[in-house]
Amino acid sequence: MARRPDGKAVFVAGALPGERVMASQTGRHRSFDEARTVEVLDAAPERVAPRCAHFGVCSGCAMQHYDEARQILAKQRVLMENFERIGHVEPERILPPLVDTSWGYRRKGRFSVRRVEKKDKTLVGFRETDPRFVADIRECHTVMPQIASKLPELAALIDGMQARREIPQIEFIAGDAQDGSHGDAFSGVALTIRHLVPLTDSDRDALVAFGKAHGFAIYLQPGGLDTVHAIWPESPKLAFSLPQWNLEFLFRPLDFIQVNAGLNGKMIQLALDLLDPKPEDRVLDLFAGLGNFTLPLARQVREVVGVEGEAGLVRRARENAAHNGIANAEFHAADLAKDLSNEHWMKQPFDKLLLDPPRSGADVVLAQLPLKQFDRIVYVSCHPASLARDAGFLVKERGWKLKAAGVMDMFPHTAHVESIALFEKA
């Protein structure tokens, strides 16, 4: 970030702290402006050569030019600045940053698709830094290699289809790796093809042939979520395991799962360590999803209740509890951004609270909960500003202590900041 002579902040993409650069303005706002680096005049010692040839054009990641160890420290600074500026709070202890592999980690995402007549080709990739355009990429170092290595072939596949102008996106997701080296074996990777017109038989056959050749399950999505269906294999099994807790999670191709599998296991362990669950505890898990935290908790406590806003995920969470032989976890569907006074679980007693809200945070539900019943609160966040706001509420208005907080590198080489915080009664 730089500042104009009048003090207005300018966020400069592609520049690192302490550098002197030539920049071109790209956006103007009331409280800040945006610019992009045109030339680096004095480079910071932390600047490194980006691994990817598409860096700077593709928007998939924006920090490859920054030394990895410094990236996570920069994210930690962002978190602490948000606590100070928004929440007006400070953690008693800063947790060591949680990290895992920084390349080839992304197991879920969405590729945009666009037929470009001037280039006489179909592009499959992430958006450019200018989101009006799809980046023309042939490689990606953050997506799992078994998916990223097939990008050119995937683009050629779509380009050869009659419906190539009517396919706007392809979702990818991967469960645990399976042996896909023997012909038609399913590798655990699934592609969901969104199409705006019915596909011809030849287009469907081409997709199936591609799936068989690479061991990818192929799903079609002609409409909303309820239209998603597999065309190869007939009933693919999508699953990932958490061996520390002897758990296997089954999921659907468009379900939310944590993007970084290695970091996810470490994150769950850290959350449980901070929560310090006891065998006699009843725990409330809000924004529970598939039960990513709920089911590991169930292995350690008397009972756990998971609440999630998306009914489909609630069904899958219940199915996963049964799949793993867990009888002490129950799940409820509820919109946690609305009035919850009629929800019967709100009236039940609990000992501890774990929550993992979306970017908007958890201010609405926190204001309604009888917080005095909890001994500890562990808050997992994907947006430092909403965490800081909610931390300010808990500390300033409800009398809790922010005992510890830290960052977790769920998305290396991006500006995304994942964090975790522990609150205890004052």
UniProtKB/TrEMBL annotation:
Binding site for [4Fe-4S] cluster: 52, 58, 61, 140
Methyltransferase recorded as keyword: yes
InterPro entries noted in UniProt: 23S_rRNA_MeTrfase_RlmD (IPR001566), MeTrfase_TrmA_AS (IPR030390), MeTrfase_TrmA_CS (IPR030391), NA-bd_OB-fold (IPR012340), SAM-dependent_MTases_sf (IPR029063), U5_MeTrfase_fam (IPR010280)
Residues the record lists as binding S-adenosyl-L-methionine: 258, 287, 292, 308, 335, 356
Principal EC category: transferase
Pfam families: tRNA_U5-meth_tr
Keywords: 4Fe-4S, Iron, Iron-sulfur, Metal-binding, Methyltransferase, rRNA processing, S-adenosyl-L-methionine, Transferase
Catalytic activity: uridine(1939) in 23S rRNA + S-adenosyl-L-methionine = 5-methyluridine(1939) in 23S rRNA + S-adenosyl-L-homocysteine + H(+)
Gene3D superfamilies assigned: 2.40.50.1070, Nucleic acid-binding proteins, Vaccinia Virus protein VP39
Keyword Nuclease: no
Record EC number: 2.1.1.190
Leader sequence segment: none
Active-site annotation: 382 (nucleophile), 382
PANTHER family associated with the record: 23S RRNA (URACIL(1939)-C(5))-METHYLTRANSFERASE RLMD (PTHR11061:SF49), RNA M5U METHYLTRANSFERASE (PTHR11061)
Similarity comment text for this entry: Belongs to the class I-like SAM-binding methyltransferase superfamily. RNA M5U methyltransferase family. RlmD subfamily.
Stated role: Catalyzes the formation of 5-methyl-uridine at position 1939 (m5U1939) in 23S rRNA.
HAMAP family, sorted: 23SrRNA_methyltr_RlmD (MF_01010)
Name under which the protein is recorded: 23S rRNA (uracil(1939)-C(5))-methyltransferase RlmD
Organism lineage: Bacteria, Pseudomonadati, Pseudomonadota, Gammaproteobacteria, Lysobacterales
